[in-house]
Fold this protein.
Amino acid sequence: MFGAITKAYGALKSIAVGLGITGRAVFQEQSTVIYPMAEVKNLGHYRGHIELVGSDADPARPRCVACGQCMDMCPSGCITVETAMAPAELKTNAFIRAESIMGQLTPAAHFDVMIGEREPKRFVLDYSACSLCGQCVRNCPAGALRFSTHAYFLSRDRADFVLDLKERLAGQAEQARQAEQARQAEQARQASGSPQAEGGRTHE
Amino acid sequence: MSLDTPLLSLLLGLAAILAFAGANGIVLVWVERKVAGRCQRRPGPLHVGPYGLLQPLADALKLISKQLITPRRSDRLLYWGAPLLSFMPVPICFLPLPFLPEMATVRLNLGLILILSFIGLNSISLCLAGLGSNNKWSLLGAARAIAQTVSFEIPLLLAALTAVFMAGSMDLHEVMAAQGPWPWQWFGFMNPLALLLFLISAVAETNRAPFDLPEAESELTAGFHTEYSGMGFGIFFLAEYAYILIICGVAAALFLGGQQGPVAPGPWWFLAKMYALVLLVIQLRWTLPRVRFDQLLNLCWRWMTPAALLNILATMLVMLALKGA
Amino acid sequence: MAQTDRRLTPAREQYAPPVVRTDVLEQIQDLCRAMSLWPMTFGLACCAIEMMAAGMARFDMARFGAEVFRPSPRQSDLMIVAGTVNRKMAPALVRLYEQMPAPKWVIAMGNCAISGGPFRSPGQYNVVEGVDKLIPVDIYVSGCPPRPEALLEGLFALQEKITGRRWWPNPTEGMR
Ligand code: SF4
Ligand code: SF4
Ligand code: SF4
């Protein structure tokens, strides 16, 4: 009899505790990001599909030396690189060593590539097969690949996920150039106009 | 024209009750989703209309415009009769509830019996839905629904009977009048066990979580309404919310003093108490996990039914003693 | 000559708007459908975890009325194919799609559902390379897995497809 009463008491108490927890949650601060109006703060860390990196001299020209290492490394075969000879003036006599880090047990194979000898004619990524494993970025000897922060990539057409990265790089370089021009024009305007007016807005 | 008046008032009353049940369903859907969200520290419906208020409206219009599917080899009559039968007792159950001051409602000296018996019809409609849809999940859900409602009807009735004994009447208005304005004069305060038993069986009777076994989606897809699309499903939900409201109204009238209140007694007290109980039921749903079926039946037959019997005996003895003194 | 032959005069436009404009009603109906897309509880692989995350407190799909994950296909409007579809699952997937009442929509979430993703390789024997080989897909959300916000974006894109306009502001980051 007493056992029954204590059991019933325990059950009721646990219900009350549960109600207390949810009741308190009602008045607690919510953890929701109100998404399209606000976004998470660390989207910079997102590893989206890969992107070519522009060379130092010409940001519209990829750093890629067309060694084909990324193509070989990709487990899903999403990368297609078509090579062409680079313009003669880019040719250097420097070599970089391409090493394939295949695993801990397999010996590392390596070969040397001349910088500026060849360049990609087309660099196509089929993102719809990519698993974002990062083998291509890790194994690129020229540091010519990076992850984008293209987090919200969707389409009504499956064919849109086949990306021509060289074209994208050219587009990005053009955008960056325009933004830079606009910034310089703005700076020039401010310098000639009233330098004191916006003293608080130094750029970092 | 004199003949027309009762007919007219009947029709008007019916229309008013149906409108109230519909509006109530729509508001409670919003409240439920909002409470669910807040309990989990998220806002719930927010962007469709101000504070997401238009959300249930959008849902209702969408449900109306969905394709209605009748499964092949189902029993058409049972299949489409079930949602209607589920909603049909609702107007009758609303009649004896003391929403309004005494003169305006229908006075029935057996009001309580009327409500409790017609609520039982709901389980028949669930059974028909399960039988009619020619689907194993639905059938299992229906079997569970029957076992559950039939079992929990007993503690529900016994608990209600306790309050009836204390008041000496089955008319909800008189039960209300037998209680005083202050909380310690309410039957729920004098006899908390009866209130507790009534509330638990009420949740089980309306198939709400943690007793929503007839539609347990982890085991039975969607239970008895697995096959219903569009408005067939919508009507089941409308009926469910109406029954929650009814049973909470009965609890408010029997155990919480109904329209009695410390200041300005009147129908608003009844409404406030009823909706407070509805909120409690909704919060319970988002707090407790679902029980297992053997736990459910054990709870009913080994705990609640004996407790309700003992409680009613004790109440009678105390009342006899008080009368004798 | 053809110009002088009056029997060959092309028909002129003879369209006058109807007296009762029912298209307004249809627009309202489309709006209601777009704002109450109930997805089916249907996760196939790792992407389903992100789908659950989209329904949880951090991103809360409920804000757009899409948190009602219905267990029964009869009550759902949207099938989110979240994960790898293999050959054994394919008949079940097609059957579930057929069991949904019209109007119904499909979002292919993740690279597996779009094209077989990392499992796509010559000679593989059990992964369906793209769920659009089985059922019509409205929106493809790419990623492995996509972020929960990307699924929300997919939902917005579907709403845009249904109603003809985007209802929510564009995010500032993550679109490029
Ligand atoms: S991240 Fe992995 S799967 Fe994607 S392209 Fe690079 S190597 Fe291929
Ligand atoms: S590994 Fe780097 S350098 Fe070689 S082809 Fe790929 S991107 Fe170009
Ligand atoms: S796309 Fe990637 S995360 Fe999604 S199911 Fe396939 S392997 Fe898993």
In short: DSSP finds 13 helices and no strands in chain B. The two ends of chain B are 56 Å apart (CA to CA).
